[in-house]
Write a structure and sequence with these properties.
Blueprint lengths: L2 H6 L1 H25 L4 H10 L6 H11 L5 H16 L1 H16 L18 E4 L3 H12 L4 E5 L2 H9 L4 E3 L5 H6 L7 E4 L4 H14 L4 E6 L2 H9 L4 E4 L2 H14 L4 H23 L5 H28 L7 H18 L1
Parallel strand pairs: 1-2, 1-4, 2-3, 4-5, 5-6
Helix pairs in contact: 2-3, 2-5, 3-6, 4-5, 11-13, 12-13, 13-14
């Protein structure tokens, strides 16, 4: 880059830079429309690529070496490309601060929370796939619940399916109060957003300390924080499903059903205890990794020890349902003969 030339011909360089950027903006907007990009994405695509590219330096140098272009023509071109590249952050800020707010997609105004016209002993916050399963199970056992969800589209869909779901943010004190938290006995938190889960817990503990709380957890880190918040009933996402799948795998491999159920119970108990122990180590990464490794080994040893104990005691291995399945063909045959 010939800085002396730029200083000598600022008007020419600026005009080339502006022309280059303007031309590329027009081309890129058109390309974005052809490929049916949304307005927000098209603006980002356009302003991110409106500058010249470094390959121009290679082309200009090659053209100069082979006599295709003269120094007088190449110098302002190289300077213009370099300056346009340097302006990229400013172009991105220009799009973010000035263009997007005026022409981009504006956030829809938040829908007003529903008026809740019922009170039940259970409040379920979050009525997606996870929460709806809990709600349907409780209802099938004669327990009515008040359902809250923060996704208006999900609420509309569930209402079309005949479910009475209320739209609203369960982390708001006034909404929980309207949902009957004063008289309810149990709050089930089934939202999939960890931060929202923590907010709901804080609100409930502050304003409705009598409520028992059971909550969904997305990860071990979330479980650690919930334990810090003195939540005792934490259900790690996919843990029980994965455990049940493992149990079915053992059964399919020929393990007796009594042993399988015993193994599931033992694994769940010790794994939950390990999470509580690891929660105290989580701020020291090396200690946490070492602790997790040790506890994985301890759990395996405990499970193997339990398996050996079952094998020693014939009565513990008794499995009536397995025997029925094993001898079912013979029993049917005898019944037919008689």
């Amino acid at each position: 880059i010939d800085f002396a030339y730029i200083a000598a011909e600022p008007g020419l360089i600026i005009s080339i830079v502006l022309s280059l950027i303007l031309l590329k903006l027009i081309v890129l907007v058109s390309v974005g429309k052809i490929f049916k990009l949304g307005l927000d994405n098209n603006l980002l695509f356009t302003f991110a690529l409106a500058q010249g590219g470094e390959f121009a330096f290679v082309l200009f140098s090659y053209a100069l070496q082979n006599g295709v272009m003269t120094t007088e023509l190449v110098n302002p071109m190289i300077a213009a490309v370099a300056i346009s590249m340097a302006l990229t952050p400013l172009l991105m800020l220009f799009n973010e601060k000035l263009i997007q707010p005026r022409f981009g997609t504006t956030e829809k105004s938040k829908k007003e929370a529903d008026n809740i016209d019922e009170e039940n002993s259970v409040i379920i916050a979050g009525f997606g796939r996870y929460g709806s399963t809990i709600g349907r199970f409780l209802q099938a056992n004669g327990v009515q619940s008040t359902y809250l969800d923060l996704d208006p589209d999900n609420v509309d869909l569930l209402r079309k399916m005949g479910l009475k779901v209320f739209y609203g943010d369960a982390s708001r004190h006034d909404l929980l109060h309207a949902a009957g938290a004063e008289s309810a006995s149990l709050l089930v938190i089934a939202v999939d957003n960890p931060e929202k889960c923590f907010e709901i817990v804080e609100t409930a503990q502050k304003h409705f300390p009598h409520l028992q709380i059971i909550t969904r957890s997305n990860s071990w880190d979330d479980s650690y924080q919930l334990l810090d918040m003195n939540i005792k009933h934490i259900y790690r996402e996919f843990f029980d499903t994965a455990l049940r799948m493992g149990a079915d795998a053992l059964a399919l491999l020929g393990h007796r059903k009594y042993h399988v159920m015993r193994a599931v119970k033992t694994f769940r108990k010790h794994d939950n205890n390990f999470v509580k122990e690891l929660a105290e180590m989580r701020h020291e990464k090396s200690k946490l990794i070492s602790g997790a490794k040790q506890r994985i080994e301890d759990l395996e040893n405990l499970m193997l020890e339990d398996l050996e104990n079952v094998a020693k005691d014939k009565d513990l291995g008794w499995d009536k349902s397995s025997l029925i399945e094993e001898f079912a063909p013979q029993i049917r045959k005898l019944n037919e003969e008689n």
